[in-house]
């Protein structure tokens, strides 16, 4: 399901991006996740969906969110307003690093 997760995890480790919180939403594969890149405040909570009951990993979350925000994640397609809001969160989180994360996710 997550083909680019490892590349994104390495970038996140390099830059200090972490899963700030992950709260199960019910069935086990749905989560409310916040990412953080200190010293900035964490992102707003956004949904994350993955198979299994394991807490989300930062590379998986980034891959899914980048795909949704760019409109390139058909199984979890979101309305344009939600895509734009998630894009804005990712810009706040990653700033000028965003293009590098897009490339690592296979989106650019």
Strand and helix layout:
Layout: H1 5-15, E1 18-26, E2 30-36, E3 46-49, H2 58-69, H3 80-94, H4 98-104
Antiparallel strand pairs: 1-2, 2-3
Helix pairs in contact: 1-2, 2-3
Notes on the structure:
- The protein is an alpha+beta fold.
- It is 42% helix and 19% strand.
- It has a three-stranded antiparallel β-sheet, covered by helices on one side.
- Helix 1 crosses helix 2 and helix 2 packs across helix 3.
Number of strands: 3
Order of helices and strands: HEEEHHH
Report the β-strand fraction as a percent range: 15-25%
- For the termini, the CA-CA separation is 19 Å
Strand adjacency order, main sheet? 1-2-3
Q: Helical stretch count? A: 4
Low-confidence stretches: none
Structural class call reads alpha+beta
Largest sheet: 3 strands, antiparallel
- Which of globular, elongated, flat, extended, rod-shaped describes the shape? globular
Mean pLDDT across residues: 91
Helix content: 40-55%
Rounded to an integer in angstroms, the radius of gyration calculated over CA atoms is 13 Å
């Amino acid at each position: 399901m997550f083909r680019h997760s490892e590349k994104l995890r390495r970038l996140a480790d390099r830059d200090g991006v972490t899963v700030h919180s992950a709260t199960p939403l019910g069935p086990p594969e749905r989560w409310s996740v916040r990412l953080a890149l200190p010293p900035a405040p964490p992102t707003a909570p956004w949904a994350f969906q993955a198979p299994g009951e394991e807490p989300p990993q930062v590379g998986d979350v980034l891959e899914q969110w980048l795909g949704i925000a760019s409109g390139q994640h058909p199984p979890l397609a979101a309305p344009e307003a939600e895509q734009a809001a998630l894009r804005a969160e990712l810009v706040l989180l990653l700033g000028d690093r965003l293009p590098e994360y897009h490339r690592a996710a296979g989106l650019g």
